[in-house]
Amino acid sequence: MKDSAIAAAAAQIGATTTAPTVTTFFDDTTCTATHVVHDPATRAAAVIDSVLDYDAAAGGISYRSAEKVVEYVREHQLQVQWQLETHAHADHLSAAPWLQQQLGGELAIGRHIIDVQQVFGKIFNAGTEFERDGSQFDRLFDDGERFQLGSIDAIALHVPGHTPADMAYVIGNIAFIGDTLFMPDFGTARADFPGGDAQRLFRSIRRLLSLPSDTALYLCHDYQAPGRDQYAWQTTVAEQREHNVHVREGVNEHDFVQLRTQRDATLNMPTLILPSVQVNMRGGRFPEPESDGERYLKIPINRLK
User: Fold this and answer.
1) Alpha-carbon span 229 to 215, nearest angstrom
2) Domain total for the chain?
3) What is the pTM of this model?
4) pLDDT, tens digit, for every residue of 250-267?
5) In 3-state terms, what secondary structure has residue 208?
6) What is the tens place of the pLDDT at every residue in 216-229?
7) Other beta carbons less than 10 A from residue 250's beta carbon
8) Which of 108, 232, 236, 258 is the most exposed place for a label (fewest CB within 10 A)?
């Protein structure tokens, strides 16, 4: 779908549908923002990028973060229609399957999750029992695919670069853009994971910044840039165009790719990348139990450096 067509479609959606309501739950352990967005008219809701609490030292999981979402949804009598993932996260485990059990909703992600499954299925030597066809999800969105949140029109946009499968969801006059952009003072997502590409990331960002200038952008993470003492996860297209330290207006593709590549070379892998991707490529589910009835995560040696 061409960027001009995206901008026109998003403008039409934002201008002709009810504005959604957004409540955000921020997990400061993983610096992740989970958004609950709902249609005020119908109470239909979507949970975007949920967090499963994971104790890396003990291999333990809990649902403290997800329980806050459940409490909010029930208190406000919302009906969850979607469990949306913007991509297979490398910094936290998804709580979507557990939330789906508690609240319902279709579990959805972009169709290119299949590419991620192919790459990381090999890295984790997942075997033939791991289906690499996206069947762990209820819905695989194509680029430019329209959907509904209650009475509100929405569109799914493929924005690869950080990973091959990143999606943004434009719901009414708001875009939920995952990791592609951070707050303007922090910049952009890294592009050095397997399947990542700085050139594609730049083009995806330009695609998002072709949306109407007053479009609200809700982010998946904030790492609190130096000099800022509060977490933040909401900005606008206009603010990003003018102030983003990596990709504001005037920064060309060549310069961005050079900057992003040099910066990525200095970064360590995320602390939770091995458990996170291993689980998230399965739609937030752990590998099947082994002969002793227990579930195990693999730690491949020297595969990610």
Assistant:
1) 25
2) 1
3) 0.95
4) 999 999 999 999 999 999
5) helix
6) 999 999 999 999 99
7) 7
8) 258
